[in-house]
Amino acid sequence: MEEHKSHLTYTLYMLTLFLCGTLLFLIGFFPASYNVAEQENTLPIDRPTTLHGENLQIPTASYDSFILFLIDALRADFPNEFTMPAAHKRACAKLSLHVDIPTVTMPRLKSITTGTLSNFIDIALNVGHTEQVEDSLLHRLKEHNAVVSFAGDHTWVHLFPSEFTRIAANNDSFYVNDFYEGDRNVTKVLETELEMKDWKLLILHYLGLDHIGHVEGNESPRIKHKLKEMDDAIKKILDHKNMTNYLLMLTGDHGMADGGGHGGNTPAETSVPLYLYSNNCSKYAASTKRYNQIDLTPTLALLLSIEIPTMSIGCLIPEMLQTLSLEHQMYAFFYNAHHLLNKARVKFGHDNVRRSDYYHWYQEATLLHKQLLQPLRLGDGSLASRVHYENAKLNYLRVAREISGQLSESLVKFDYGFIAVGLALTTATSLHILLSVLFIDMATEQLQLYRLKVGQLLLSLAIGIALNVGSHLLDFVLTSSMLQGLLLLLPIVAAVYLTIDVAQALLKILLPPLYSRHLKLSIPLPVPLLVCYAIRILTLGSSSFIEFEYKTWYYLGNTLLMLIALKTLRRRITKANVELDGRHLHKIASTCLWQQRKIFVVLILLILMRYLHRLAAIKSTLMLFSLLLFWARLRKFTDTPQAVFNGFAFLLVYCFRGLNGQVQFFELPQYMVGRFLLPVLVLFWCCLALVLVLGYRTALPHQRESGRSLLDEQPRSNLLKLLHTNLTCSLMLVALLYKVQNVVLLPTLLITLDETYKLCEAYGTTARKFSVRLVHVYKTIMTIFVARMFYFYQGNSNSLSTIDLTPGYIGQTSYNPIIVGFFVTLNTYSAEIHSFLYLIVHTLRADLRSVGIMQLQPSYARAAHSLVAPLYAALVLLPAAFYLLLMVGFRYHLFIYSVFSPKVLYDCYTVFVFYLVFLTTSLYFKLFKHEA
Amino acid sequence: MVSRFDQQKTKHQLFHVSLSLATILICMTYMQYRRNWAHLGSFWDSLIVPIVFIGELLKVILARFFGRIEDGVLTVKQRQKKAAYFTPRELLGGLTLQFLCTLLYAFICIILGAPVLANYEQTFVLSLLMTLLTVSPTVFLLGGGGALQVCFCEKPDFVTKCEDTALHLFKYNALGGILGAWAGSVVAPLDWGRDWQVYPIPNVIGALLGSALGNIYACTHVLYACGRVYMSKKRA
């Protein structure tokens, strides 16, 4: 028993180490603050006042007031003459901006205000938004004592806690069920601000559109309504009597994907409009050019007559500068080029810059500029000066564009020290766990993988210290403090220790002469499963296979199911045919086919699941039917009182959806709906709690005394009962969280898993040489395939825009990151979590006598923690480790941030979720095992 | 193996491989001639299915031709089987079996991701081709009941030596065809935007190439043995 317990503990340690490794890798691959290391203070902050000895005149602010009208998730095709008539008709210029990834709010706000590209990992920090910005337009405005007022998204306040003069932020900008309340407040602030008229810059950030997109998708009728509301707000500004000399900029922080989310890289998400409004429109030339979002920052800085923020790497938008005099325009082009050239000098070194093309263009432009100063001041409109002017302007612009491009490419910086440590740890861990599973019989004695060897630990400690000190001395690893350096020692030592272990084990396996007998694999590895698994791993190397990963899973999963079904069928027929010697063959065939009818039904169901999104028309019927089916399935694990509450809870789920108007329900007036919604949810939670309590009651200590005799008969019943209860409760919760048309996936998942397991058993028993482990291996691998298939049936993908945020807010009235995170994770990963739990429960419960086989040693149920769980863990870790290796190879790939990086986040999170589930399960094993 | 070099068997196998390769070559020439991939999946417009059908028929005739030589040494059971070949019962059984197989292949295509109704014609052509490559030769050779027995019995005793050779070749033919068609789907998710990435085309070509490769693989040791014999003769 002790030995078997150690399997779980060992796997848990391995998973922990693997997670540490991925964390280190992520830190190294996406350094959270890459610009800190740069010596930004070497840049001159002040604006240049002389050019080749001539004094330059710094332009004053060209407008009295600026309004940044930011609509969250305003995609390029939203504002048009029908949805926003006034805004569309009265715009002086309509430009479009290209947004960089990640297309989520916080990094975008940083880009707009600082003018630098954001880090990919900001997407993860988007929810936490802890980091404050060092230097931005708002910091500069504050230095100039300008009044800046703000209303809208709370994220701004986290980024700029003290830079605003007046703040009216929404309290909970992550609460997506709020469509109108927050926006109404913003408009109210807008009205008072318009009356006050003392501000230089007013920032309005409307969130409603984004929330509607998240909850109802981009086709929702409310979007039109919302755009109309925005249109009215703009009209209010344009028609206000106080607005005399102003610039109003209407733009979005990011776009909206076709499903309504954002975060990915589709054109719909990366393209936003920029509409400009002013009181003298005539000076604007019509243009539909496309600029980068970071170009807005230097342009605004010049119009506001402040310094360009140090980190800005944007170019200028000439269309916005047309209200300036020619001399001032020239100054603007000069200043931005000058700023970028200084940045390039810091980044690439003086000598490299001097040798480059753009330096010569810059020289040429400044000479022309100097010649032009006098004619421009005199207002000389001669042809020669016009030509010189255009020439200088073009040169300045191309200098800026060139440097901006080079700088944004060079922003990608990897911390190879952390990457190396992380990779070493993940690779060593996954190899270690793989070896220990493959040679599970020998792992304890001959390979000694489970035992902690003190001598080896000391040795690896010494090597680790040497490596750590050496790499610090060689500047290979940079840590900011002594403590971090010491902390880094731990993963290095672990990696070294595991590598020595793996190397020793490999040596022992590959060099059998050292041993009396050859080391054989302890578990059978069926070829088709291995081939499919290998294909799945190899396809990670192609960006299109990652984008369409669901196709791979559907194809391979169905192939495997089909293959096993047909093979079993053939074996059954052959077996039945042996005695009959070829007579009545078609009768035997049809009988065997009829025996296997269920698996074909499952295959047809799996085809149907592919078309789930088309079943919206019958979703009420479908939901009722699937809840009924689900209840019947869960009835297998629950006793009668539990089943009653379970059924009641499902009824409440339907009521909840009905009250929300997503399925057919009694027609109720709006105020009644609001009143009923809360009690329904409370009742649901009560039912859930009751089911939980009823299930746990059997495991309570005082119950054990009375039921001693019962327990002796079924030693595993307590543990099994508890796991059943957990599975039931979490499935009930998921039924509440799932989208209406997705609920049918839950019973289908259970049916599919059940039938797959039966099929695997039948396959194992018809084999010539029966082995329990073969059945386990088949079941485990098939579970992984089925789980992934259902994960993708649900609508998930490898793009961050398909994460469904709505379930996080069911029954919530405010934004609570823990609850929302829990719900969203449970909703997204429900297929994988429950498949694993179901596999464990099934293995514990399974009784091979039902298929005509005596229990063998080691007993079938014990395999749950000695073989199935470690094998599952190894199979989860292996692709993730391989993918991390691939990432390093692909680090300069064109699609690294758009395709590969989101996938790596998904992968790491999958491992993390698996870790949590595994931790919980093994805790139950630890706590309740001793009763067995 | 080399010591008991069976001339008839080797001839049979070599002719068989040449027939397969000829079929593939004709198919390829035809495709090159049409210069348009889209029609590959259409039933009335594509000549692939008739070409493959004739090819498979020729293979069966080849097997029958070689089978005639050993007519004298047949057992009673084998004779009975031969006599029952053209009875309506056997013919009907064979046709039913092929039809059911086509349905099964269509079902597999749909399970593996083909659209359920939208591309029914292409699915039908693909499954017809798969049936022709896998089941039909055996059915033509042995009749419906015989094919079933070959598939599900350990060692049917009515199979003559020559038929055994043919069945061995058909087996690799079928395996290669299935694997090729299965592996052909690999190009489907790629974003190259070529017109030959559309659903049935890579699978059809994969099936053809796969069966040819399977044939060659089945004959590798024969080819090798031929080479050995040839070399030893030359030396002597």
Automatic annotation (TrEMBL), chain A:
InterPro entries with a match to the protein in the record: Alkaline_phosphatase_core_sf (IPR017850), Phosphodiest/P_Trfase (IPR002591), PIGG/GPI7 (IPR039527), PIGG/GPI7_C (IPR045687)
Keyword Hydrolase: no
One GO BP annotation of this record: GPI anchor biosynthetic process
SUPFAM superfamilies cross-referenced by the UniProt entry: Alkaline phosphatase-like
Positions of transmembrane segments: 12-34, 416-440, 452-474, 486-511, 523-546, 552-569, 640-656, 676-699, 777-794, 814-841, 862-884, 904-925
Pfam entry (one): Phosphodiest
GPI ethanolamine phosphate transferase 2 C-terminal domain span: 775-914
GO molecular function: CP2 mannose-ethanolamine phosphotransferase activity
GO cellular component assignments: endoplasmic reticulum membrane
Keywords: Membrane, Transmembrane, Transmembrane helix
Presence of keyword Membrane: yes
The protein's name in its UniProt record: GH22081
Organism: Drosophila grimshawi (Hawaiian fruit fly)
UniProt lineage: Eukaryota, Metazoa, Ecdysozoa, Arthropoda, Hexapoda
Automatic annotation (TrEMBL), chain B:
Pathway the protein takes part in: Glycolipid biosynthesis; glycosylphosphatidylinositol-anchor biosynthesis
Domain of life, per lineage: Eukaryota
Protein name, entry field: GH16941
InterPro entries on file: GPI_biosynthesis_protein_Pig-F
Species classification: Eukaryota, Metazoa, Ecdysozoa, Arthropoda, Hexapoda
A Gene Ontology biological process term: GPI anchor biosynthetic process
Organism name: Drosophila grimshawi (Hawaiian fruit fly)
Gene Ontology CC entries for this record: endoplasmic reticulum membrane
Bilayer topology annotation: Multi-pass membrane protein
Main location per the UniProt record: endoplasmic reticulum
Transmembrane region(s): 12-31, 43-62, 91-118, 124-152, 172-192, 204-226
Alphabetical keyword list: Endoplasmic reticulum, GPI-anchor biosynthesis, Membrane, Transmembrane, Transmembrane helix
Annotated compartments: Endoplasmic reticulum membrane
Keyword Endoplasmic reticulum: yes
